[in-house]
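Schema walk-through. Below, the input block comes first and the output block second. Nothing else is stored per chain. Lengths vary across the set, and this one has 442 residues.
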Amino acid sequence: MRVFQNLSAATIAALLGHTLAVPIVVHPGGVNDVVITSQDTLNETLSNQGPNQSATPLSASDAEQLSVSVYNNFDSDSVNVYITGLDSDGNIVCLTSSGTWYTPTANTSTTTPQEITDDIAIPIGAYGTTTSFTLPSYFSSGRVWVADGELTFWTVIASTGVLSLVEPSAVNPDDPSASTNWGFVELTTDSSGITINLSYVDFVGLPLGIEVQGSDGTQSVLGVSVDAISSICTDLATQAASDGQPWNELCMTDTSGNALRVIAPYDYISLEPDAFDTYWTSYVADVWSQYETTPLTIDTQAAAGLVNCTVTSGTLNCAGDNRGYAQPVASDIFGCNSGPFAIESGDNDVHLAVVPRLCAAFDRSTFLVSGGNVQPSLDSSSYYTTTPTNYYSKIVHQYESDGKGYAFAYDDVTPDGGPNASGLLNDPNPTLLTITVGGPTS
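--- output ---
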């Protein structure tokens, strides 16, 4: 087991101990190859509340159920579903094939991850069939994992006494589940209904689509096509040949060369800290130079309205913002959660509105195109039209059947009235969740 949560990206890369191929070839390992990061763990909330306190339920009732159907449009008879999350008391739960919640535990005498060997895999029928089951009650921070084969989950108790579920890692090429083709959707169900999200912020894997039926009618996100992974890898290789950046190394394959997934640039940088290190340098400098003399207007789309920003003494300062913005580097732009885009305690509403709009404009490279002095104001035809840009996001969107599905953290930033590119669905009274495996049916 390697715990990387508090280590730098450079240290992580050194500890992984391999030279990355082009593309990355996975070599699944065992318990000693499990990497524990905040990105790949789900922590119980009850354990954080102290020995004499009780958890606050998500809602007044814990009896609500939701019907789920999984349609297999993938040519495989070995598809399994895993469902993980937190119950209304903050306990980690996994759904068993019998339709009941299973609460995993861990040995308090060791920090070594313990594999969950209980039956938490729900087998899905053959190609062209639908498998139905029921979520027995409300749960939060949930994921529906879909795999062509089996996934391995672990539990561990941290030094703080908190029980954590250690989940498969899409980034670690030595993860025990690394050679399995899988993906997931994220959801929460509570008294306000269902919130479910199809996201490619971290990686694109097994093609999935989601549909919710309820009081708001039928809503859907179709996802990527069945052959999207190999097509995305081909396009990234073409881009790498064009600009010399390691776009092709975002692809992960098995030892036979079969494409398994494509990881996002930010996650690749966690493996190769020097990747893309100068990719944005000139563009950022040009943006800063442009807005030393020309105001940049941020439409907060909130009470603050239009906010003017100007670069002074090397810092972008916005009216009413509690602090300014230094020039971002590649990892800041791809991740949207570090450097000038990190959110700190005490940041005011203006700052919370400016950060996503700034980072979205960088990823889409819209600052210097006509009309880019107001963010957001441009439609999607202006996104990714200049270089440098986030080619991962651009190419992923090209293979989304309906253009929906986050490809970076703030992909839902859009002008008022513009189409929402996110893969987020909500319904206050859902009756059926349908997940399609293997891409759209038509």
